[in-house]
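Regression check, zinc ion case 114:
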Amino acid sequence: MHELSVMQGILEVVLRHAANNGVSGVEAVNLQVGSLSHLREEWMQKYFHHLAAGTVAEGAVLRVQRVPAVICCRECGRKYEWQARTGPSCPSCASERGDLVSGREYTVASLEAV
Ligand SMILES: [Zn+2]
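Current build output:
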C-alpha cells in the first residue's frame, strides 16, 4: 500500500533524527508535503500513529505544511510554481510543456521533542 510505505519512510527519518539527537520522545513532526501529493492529512496521521506505536515517536502529532509544485519549462528553462487550478503555463514564454521538479515529495522539516 502506497500510503503505508510513504509513512514508513517518514517514520524512519524521524526515528533516525531522534536517535542522532538523543531524543527520548517526539511530540510533533513538522512535515512538508508537495501540493501534488494525494495523501490526505487525516490518513497520514492515522498511518503514522499506527506505525509509530512502540517507538519514541508514539503519539506524535504530524503538522503538515503544503509546499508548491515547481515546474521547469522545457522551452526556456525557467522554474515556476505550478498553480493547480490553471495548469502548467510558463510566465516567461507561455509554454505549457514542462517537467515537474518538485511537488510530490515528503520532507521531514523538523521534530519537536517532549
Ligand atoms: Zn518558458
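Comparison notes: The first strand starts at residue 26 and ends at 34. The first helix runs from residue 2 to 20. No diff flagged against the previous build.
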